Amino acid sequence: MCLGVPMKLIKNNGVTGVAELGGLEREIGLQLLENVKVGDYVIVHAGYAIQKLDEKEAAETVALLEGMRVQGRIAIRPCILNLKHEIYR
To answer: At CA 74, angle to CA 69 and CA 79, rounded to 5?
Structure first.
C-alpha cells in the first residue's frame, strides 16, 4: 500500500515540479491542482500532487507518519523513494 505523503514544493515548472521531504527531492506532476506555488505543501500520491495543505497540517501528518514508522507499522522512505509519474501528452 502506498500513502499520500505531504511534501513542500521547491520548484514549479508548470505541469511538473520538484517537492522535498526530509532532504529527499522528487519530481512530481502538478496537473491535478490549480495555482500551486513554490513553498506550498502538497499531498503527493503516485507521483502527483493531489491536494494542497497548510504547513501545520503537513507537519502534523509527517509527525504521525514518523511515529508509525518508528513503531514499525510503515516504511516511509521506501514509499517516497518509489515516487514516479508519467506525463501523458
So the answer is: 105
Q: Give the dihedral of Cα atoms 43, 49, 55, 57; nearest 10 deg.
A: -30
Element (H, E) at 80: helix 76-81
Summarised one tens digit per residue, pLDDT across range 53-64 is: 999 999 898 888
Give CA–CA dist 84/39, Å, rounded.
Answer: 21
Inter-residue contact 21 to 76 (CB < 8 Å): no
Global confidence as pTM: 0.77
Residue-wise pLDDT for 14-30, tens only, equals 999 999 998 899 999 99
Distances (CA, A) of 51 to 10, 58, 68, 86: 16, 11, 22, 18
> Grid coordinates in use for 40?
506550498
Q: What cell numbers appear for 19 in the block?
A: 517537492
